[in-house]
Fold this protein.
Amino acid sequence: MLRIPEVEEVMELGKELGFNFTRTEAEIVQDRIASSLQELDEFYEMRIEEERLPLRYLTRDPGYRPSAEEDPYNAFIRKCRVEGAEEGILKGKTVALKDHVAVAGIPQSFGSHFMDGYIPDYDATIVTRLLDHGATITGKLNMHDFSSGGMIGVGNFGRTQNPHNPDHVPGGSSSGSGAALAAGLVDISIGGDQGGSVRNPAHYCGVVGLKPTFGLIPHTGVVGADPSLDYLGPMARRVEDVAAALQCLAGPDGYDPRQTEMPEIPNYTELLDRGVKGLKIGILTEGFGYEGMEKDVEEAVLSAVDVLRHAGAEVKKVSIPMHTDAHIAGSAIMLEGTKYLFDTNFGGAFAATYYPTSLITTIGRFKQSHGHEWPLTFKLNMTLAEYLHERYHGRLYAKAQNVRKTVKKAYDKAFAEVDLLVCPTKPNKAPKFVEARNYVEAMEHYLNRGGAAHSRNTMPFNYTGHPAISVPCAKSEGLPIGMQLIAPHFQDLLLLQTAYAFQETVDMSKLQTVLAI
């Protein structure tokens, strides 16, 4: 039963909202609140069946936390096994998921201990689709707690190591999604990308990672960030496995409100072997040579472009001045957008979609009782977002949203001249992990390593919605380097075709050999 607030509570709530009720006003408001709560209480108690996401493949158990021997790089939070259909293009493939994806019956942590005990009773849309196509889900992957970091690979479940050199970071926030693949522990992984968090670990761990066109893969049943920047992306050691995963995952599900004006989904797997003859590739000049760009990274990507040139592609330089600052606009949306999502206990609002009531309740209760346990990087971002919202009334968020089309047009203008753009995924190789004495020191190390500047080549395409893929193209000092290809909207197939052509031209296995433990 919904409790009617006391008059004093009404006055306090009004004060928080800037209303400053007189007692007489508060008594009037309390009376109206009482009437409204009675109606809402009656509605809440009505026995109306709530729509639920499809739930099939019911044989599953909660799994377990793997040992260091089983998971030497700490890529997994939880191992489990959920068998899919008897047939399908993913039959025989093992798939693991970043732990922001709901799998019914399997504990979901979002990388944080405060979610201990939370077990979703629904499958995310992508889980149903993977299982429908024969995949076997084998685990939930490590991540920064609440996706609150983009590089170092540290969360409540310990540090994920980079299999190419365990002394170095794997990238994040989908750290386990990259490390598990590099270590050969899984065939396909699913990561989340809000500014580069699929492509970062792909670059640092030497695997293939796709951030698809905005809205191509439904996000239903996944804890996210600002929905205008949020993506799910398949990752694998081989391009053909990424293509097979996308074949299963792409298309509207009837719940995700971002999936409008969806074109017909092509057969990504059958059309993969196209080659690059006659393909026009633009070297994005603003994606090279900026502060923090390591020379060997730049040279490796340019050498990879030469491989594509020799395979028949036409290559020219393309300048898009807006690329230099596009990541800042994306960051402005990410900050305040995540604050708005936080206010709804990560359930979101203002859309006719599926709302996970159990998750919303769990996070809401935690906020009330254990708010001090949020990770410090998350506290930093939320405090900055609250400051911007309180002092500047949301106008930075509004401006960043309003200039989005202008920035998108700048890239689309370039795509009138070339078919694809290319640049380094990240400006550096995987940095060495610096042991921190505490979480505060760990955050300082992260911030001192560049913060948002490291998303300069990745965040812009979360912002504009263009698809982008990171493909391993070289190793230097034993560490992988990724080449990022970017395409026009819904030209994900062209990205996969080009990445596949590159993969088949070079010996990618040499780039993906990891150190033995």
Notes: The first strand starts at residue 76 and ends at 83. The chain has two domains: 7-45, 76-511. Residues 7-45 form one domain.
